[in-house]
UniProtKB/TrEMBL annotation:
Highest taxon of the lineage: Bacteria
Lineage: Bacteria, Pseudomonadati, Bacteroidota, Flavobacteriia, Flavobacteriales
Protein name: Lipoprotein
Length: 135
């Protein structure tokens, strides 16, 4: 009887362990779904909307940050300073999981003007992440 209970318990534990192991592609998909579900509550200066798009075959996630800022040199200069700080803050708060980057997922991030033209584009990889987090 005890042996039977032990075998059943072992089987249940193994099933739970195997179902708890997710591969990078599953984590990528889950991140994109969760990010977009919570995007409406995202708060950052001048950001009006943020969205994520996953590219499973390329092991890449695209994050877009739309702003209320007009495309001009002054705003572009300010964006070059503020956008890396925003990204670092998102990593610090685990809004962008460092684990995904360390597993090889590339984040292409765009800080956009009110007309959807690009102020700043940051590509975050395992190699570039230490520099971003240092700033």
């Amino acid at each position: 009887m005890v042996k039977k209970i032990s075998q059943i318990s072992f089987a249940i534990i193994m099933v739970l362990m195997l179902s708890g192991c997710k591969n990078t592609k599953q984590k990528l998909q889950e991140f994109v779904v969760k990010y977009n579900a919570t995007a409406s509550s995202f708060k950052a200066e001048n950001v009006t909307l943020t969205t994520a798009r996953g590219y499973i075959n390329d092991n890449k996630i695209e994050l877009r940050f739309e702003t209320s800022l007009e495309q001009n040199d002054a705003n572009k200069t300010a964006a070059n300073t503020s956008f890396p700080k925003l990204l670092k803050d998102m990593f610090d708060k685990n809004q962008i999981p460092e684990e995904l980057v360390n597993e090889g997922v590339q984040f292409d991030t765009y800080f956009l003007a009110d007309d959807n033209t690009v102020f700043v584009k940051e590509i975050i990889t395992k190699e570039s992440l230490p520099q971003l987090l240092k700033e």
